[in-house]
Amino acid sequence: MSLAVxxxxxxxxxxxxxxxxxSMIVPDGQGSLRISSAAFKDPEMSGDSEAxxxxxxxxxxxSILFHPSHSLARVNVKILRDLEQEVVHVPLIEDPGRxxxxxxxxxxxxxxxxxxxxDRIRKASNLVVLKSPP
Length: 134
Prior knowledge:
Blueprint: E1 15-20, E2 25-27, E3 33-35, E4 44-49, H1 50-55, E5 71-76, H2 77-82, E6 86-89, E7 92-95, E8 101-103, E9 106-110, H3 117-124, E10 126-129
Antiparallel strand pairs: 1-4, 1-5, 2-3, 4-9, 5-10, 6-9, 7-8
């Protein structure tokens, strides 16, 4: 359900902040951990706008406030658009990922994510917060 706030343009310079479930943090084969490309397959991949959070005085970690076991990844909007993803602001009146509270920072990367696209997004992403899986 959309929130009754003005939709904002999402610029190419913005970053999509995506919560990463603990099951999507996997060994990288070199003794470290990385995000699985499966975390980036959703055709309506959602997250929060880092620029909108900053304008409101909030840190990126706001995105995982209700999910203390989740990691947080950052992906540049221009890279998503270059991969034929439509990135739009979709404020929510009830965000199921935030105990059904409003989320005016919610954005989505809409588009098919088949073939190499999820792995290309994974490689372009960086971890803001890494939580080791249980």
